[in-house]
């Protein structure tokens, strides 16, 4: 059994080697810069200590990454890949120091293949650029994380980012056809291809997706594209209670016979934060909850028809009103509000637990009842929003800024919440990832055989444990590790 | 390093233990029965020798499977799981004898959950029963392999069966939300859940899908369901050349802005075999190729509109005619012909190579040109059909029954074909699996690091190598194994 905590350190000679591989401009040991790059969107105050890489590198090619890994593997130096730092779980935080690999210079769209409906990109391309490039060609890239204007596609793949269109198109992984991967020892391989189906060997494409950089480092991604729907409409539907909003959600498919691209929930508390943050107002903003339902299609009349059907059904099921946004500016305003909720809450609250729970869709009401009860018990507030169409709710537990022992209280409240989620058939994270933040809770959701399989699969891919150590996998149940 | 070829044998005491677990009625050592169950749809004349299990068992519960595996693992006895035997790659053929596990008694639909749009089934349920049960509830199970009237869902999952609706809904794996799995040591775990997204740990659900029973034995499956489209139409479109038919395929999405549920190709030779086999006739059966395009939707007018758009476009692009089947009996007749092609060819030819190639969709014409050239060079015929919409073509190379050395000739022709496929960015199998039949060819399509990763992952899940040994994984590159 290897012991991944006996890592090699980044000596001056290692920095020299890295400079020889990357050129002097591709390597940084500047403490301030390293500090900036060693973070993601999880505030440092939530960690037990600041985590810092020892050296920061900026590869420009697969060959660079390969040479970095070959050297790191020989010397047992940890390597943490990093996208744009928009992560919400500390997945790109270098838990054991070592080499931090920024992909900002591997940011090219390599090919837009309109015949095979796919795009080949480097991991440092910003998600929204992919969406735009596809749209220009009349095509849709279906990934749509809220952080898409800033996030890198490599991070989206590594965390299997979800976002706003999962109910119709699946998470990021559903759009991944192939990956070029540098393995721990520096060897380079391709999983998958420009192929819509493939049973030639184990499905390592989807094993890599969501593996948080612990199994290999992704250097190229082939993304599936779809014909761009010609028409789209967003419905903003306020409800008098959160429960009424949630109970309406399954009716859209079951009674309305419509599969929207998005069904998003924003409760009153979440909406207020977003309005304050953006200095804007949305209609009926005193309502307990709003749903945003996005419909799309190629036929204007069908979309209009579905809009009417969903709107009518909503009013039957207790909606206060139905607002239809069918032009660019009103649609953008709506989504800007929805997408800013996370940032707004973090701006106005210090003491929060930002959760990424997922339960079977019909248990969402039970989950939110339980959150209500928790709030009363622990004298705290909650802001709930997220992808209600797929059962993925971002529950935010909020405690007063001046509350003593808030951290201990929050931890206990969180434990009770997790126990409820488990009982509801739910799990720890739907799209934000485990990272450093949630690793300690994994054993509440995955049984011992499964944790052991994860450990063995990690060993199969990365015998020396150099790839993003401290994430996802427990090397040694007795000693534990950072984040465990 | 374990040596999986040093397997334990099925002694009378093992049979006794199995009878104690399953009851006497759950165990068979009847040689004739074992011979029948030790086959799939690959004719035995294609194997180097007949493969036979030593004992056949019929578990009725997860507990049964768990106890069988615990015992087998202790004694290093091979265990091969088996569905309905409709496989086309020898995936369920017991290459090393041992215990053959038939799932015909684990054939219950355990739950149809109309709120969460999913169904929980045992592996021995016939695929078509799932489709019917879903349809009764107004829901769609999107898996649609041609063998669906006979195949078991467990086999569909183990091989990641494709079928006729992959372009719209993906292969079987896209419908799998969760799996109950018995691991090699008999422990029982669940991968996934009734959740539309989940990043809590590695994606072992999709690692299991298509792993051909080599990593664990599936005992329950949670399948995703969708709202059933209210209207469907099939277009039968004859073309004067295969090339014209294929070149039309991408125009459907790109110019027609339509995403059909199916785009199937049947060439003249394939259609003739099916007509003879079914004693039926389809219109324009002298045409070089037919496409079957299935359209579906919830709005009768939209479907009618799309039908017209696709039909008109087809005629512009050289179709000889467009036949619209919009009632049950004409649609059934069409699909019966399509689904019988494989069986028909096997009925009329002895010396065939039945391939399951997949290439990037825009390379399908190149693939078929290469097949033409091969036919001329090797003096043979070809029948080509399949899922042209996703680049998965069942190329059938056919040699005269009385040809001497046909096997050697075929092998060489096949090698040349595979080399072409590789150069086109294609691969060995899109949906039939590797099994015993294609294992020897894996190294032409997967590089050494990948084969080594497969070996290590296999070891991680199954340290003693008892699970369907001889399939997918090379234990020892030097000695090779059965099928290798």
Structure description:
2 copies of one chain form a homodimer. With 484 residues, the first copy, chain A, is of the alpha+beta class. Chain A has 4 domains: 12-102, Uridine Diphospho-n-acetylenolpyruvylglucosamine Reductase, domain 2; 109-227, Uridine Diphospho-n-acetylenolpyruvylglucosamine Reductase, domain 3 (2-Layer Sandwich), CATH 3.30.465.10; 231-341, Alpha-Beta Plaits; 349-423, Alpha-Beta Plaits (2-Layer Sandwich), CATH 3.30.70. Chain A has helices at residues 12-22, 31-37, 62-75, 127-136, 153-159, 166-169, 204-208, 242-254, 268-278, 300-316, 328-348, 364-378, 406-423, 442-445, 448-461, and strands spanning 27-28, 55-57, 79-82, 99-102, 109-113, 118-121, 139-140, 176-182, 188-192, 217-224, 226-227, 231-239, 262-267, 289-297, 323-325, 351-354, 357-358, 381-387, 392-399. In chain A, strands 12, 13, 14, 15, 16, 17, 18 and 19 form an 8-stranded antiparallel beta sheet that branches. Chain A has a 5-stranded antiparallel beta sheet with strand order 5-6-10-8-9. The first copy, chain A, is globular. Residues 478-484 of chain A have low confidence and may be disordered. At the A-B interface, helix 7, strand 11, helix 8, helix 10 and helix 15 of A face helix 7, strand 11, helix 8, helix 10 and helix 15 of B.
